[in-house]
Amino acid sequence: MSTLARSLSSPPPRGTVYGSLLNFRDALEALGDSVHRPPYQAPPKAPILYIKPRNTVSADGDPIVVPHGVDALEIGASLGLVIGRTACRVGEAQALEFVSGYVIVNDVSVPHASYYRPAMRFKCRDGFCPIGTPVPRDAAIDPNALTLRVEIDGVEAQRASTAGLIRPAARLLAEVSEFMTLHPGDVLMVGVPAGAPLARAGQCVSISIDGLGRLQNRLVAEGSA
Amino acid sequence: MKRARVAYAGAVHAAVEHAQGLQLADGRVVAEDAVVWLAPFEVGTVIALGLNYADHLKELSKELTVSTQDEPLAFLKSPGALIGHRGQTRRPADARFMHYECELAVVIGSRTRNVKRADAMKHVAGYTVANDYAVRDYLENYYRPNLRAKNRDTCTVIGPWLVDAADVDDPHALALRTWVNGRIIQQGNTRDLINDIPALIEYLSGFMSLDTGDVILTGTPEGVVNVNVGDEVVTEIDGIGRLVNTVVGDAAFGRT
Questions:
Q1: What angle do CA B217, B218, B223 make, to 5 degrees?
Q2: Chain A residue with minimum CA distance to B70
Q3: What average pLDDT does chain A have?
């Protein structure tokens, strides 16, 4: 498909971008017993979401700015579900019918140790959410068996599979839509696996997911652009 | 000038306040209860503040697991959670503690990044009233307040009017109050904001661009009390507006 034809069939998402915290088993396990202690006191019960606001959204090839005083940024590779139809209280069995496509999302963060308070200052900087080109949903793509790979300067830095999700894509969408309607153009990230790699200014980050292509962005130091 | 966005006779209209209610941009004058009130501006990013009044911080301190606060507690909501004046908000049947929050909403009028306090107010288009409901039963200690507690459909009420910034002499001297079924149960004044409006704009723009239509809900004072199905909740800010909302049950939303 030509780039133009693809962009006509799959325009860039224009809705709200949501992330899912601690939805990979290994990411939750990495917190160990601390989930039973203050400030958390208990493991998450329902999906814990966060929002990547419109100022964060960027595209393949756009620079990611490393702020002054920050050594490296966390590269959060995620599968994004692009919502195609208004999804309110959808059942798990039907949930994927509300998904028009899949897309690679790079949920960039300034590393932060605590998940207790909302992390706007760490996750909502301009350009901190590069999003690739959506690929239409297709039975050949199983959202629960996709390999995510992160390469930094061409060297593999992380490999994970969506088989490790606590709530697989359909169940996540069903549980979220119980309390919050998702609208066409919204993107729901399924989660970021444990051990998100760090990248520094000057490095090139590439995220690939089976069947969804590749999302590449270079990190630049603040003030160097 | 007080501006609104309403649905009337099959279309969405810009409108302004009029002695008989509202005047649509096409000249028609209509009564307040003849229109469907929408959010009074095209909503961009919705930023909300927690614990931004000293008295409310004290009120909630017994249930907080971390008490120190060295920067504003800011979180995001999605435009889909918003409803307008005279709307209905769903109270889930299993909730034991759901409460309103009367808040001054600051609407951004021009793009800004890294603005300093002295210049921050230039980027304010105007003000409106928000009622930012929370269902405390669903709070969890991850990115708290989490979206399931604070970003539920119909649980952010906003309006009725966007009041031009030029028409508000001092946004830090406005009395706020909430009425439930005609009785005042929450009162405060924006002079008691911990982080005032220029401080919030400086803080936020220090890491993110703010743009036209972005809105900052500046937090609520003490006096949050549970509401029940059938309650009429009015959040009011002097000179800004009186925002009416009704709490309805699951049945109205086809949930049993």
A1: 105
A2: A117
A3: 94
Which of B44, B147, B208 lies at the smallest CB-CB distance from A49?
B147
Which pTM value belongs to this model? 0.95
Q: Could A118 and B113 be called an inter-chain contact, meaning their C-beta atoms sit closer than 8 Å?
A: no
Instruction: Of A218, A224, A179, give the one whose Cα is nearest residue A60.
Output: A218
Query: Is A161 in a helix, a strand, or coil?
Result: strand
How do residues B133-154 score in pLDDT, each as one tens digit? 999 999 999 999 999 999 999 9
CA distance A160 to A147: 6
Question: Could A88 and B45 be called an inter-chain contact, meaning their C-beta atoms sit closer than 8 Å?
Answer: no
What angle (nearest 5°) sits at the alpha carbon of residue B68, between those of residues B63 and B70? 135
Domains B1-38 and B42-253 share a fold: no
Shortest Cα distance, chain A CAs vs residue B160, angstroms = 23
pLDDT at B54: 83
CATH number listed for the domain at residues B42-253: 3.90.850.10
Cβ contact, residue pair A126, B151, below 8 Å? no
Q: Say if the Cβ atoms of A67 and B66 lie within 8 Å.
A: no
Establish how many alpha carbons lie within 13 A of residue A134's alpha carbon, considering only the half-sphere containing its beta carbon: 25
Chain center to CA of B126: 13
- Cα Rg for chain B, rounded, in angstroms? 18
Choices 1.20.1090.10, 2.30.30.370, 2.40.50.140, 2.60.40.420: CATH for B1-38: 2.30.30.370
For residue A77, which amino acid is it?
Answer: A
Question: Which residues, 6+ apart, have CB-to-CB distance to A132 below 8 Å?
Answer: A60, A103, A104, A105, A207, A212, A213, A214, A215
Q: Does residue B198 have a cis peptide bond before it, meaning omega lies within 30 degrees of 0? A: no
As a whole number, mean pLDDT of residues B41-66 equals 81
CB pairs under 8 A between A and B: 117
CATH number of A3-221: 3.90.850.10
List chain A residues with pLDDT less than 70: 1-13, 225
Query: Looking at residue B51, what DSSP letter applies?
Result: S
- Nearest by CB: B142 against A18, A48, A182: A48
Residue B62 pLDDT grade (very low, low, confident, very high; cuts 50, 70, 90):
low
Distance to chain A for B76, nearest Cα, Å: 6
Give the pLDDT score at A1. 41
Chain A residues near residue B113 by CB distance under 8 angstroms: 126
Query: Which of B61, B83, B142, B152 to probe the A interface (max A CBs under 10 A)?
Result: B142
Say yes or no for a CB contact (<8 Å) between A117 and B143. yes
CA distance A209 to A45: 28
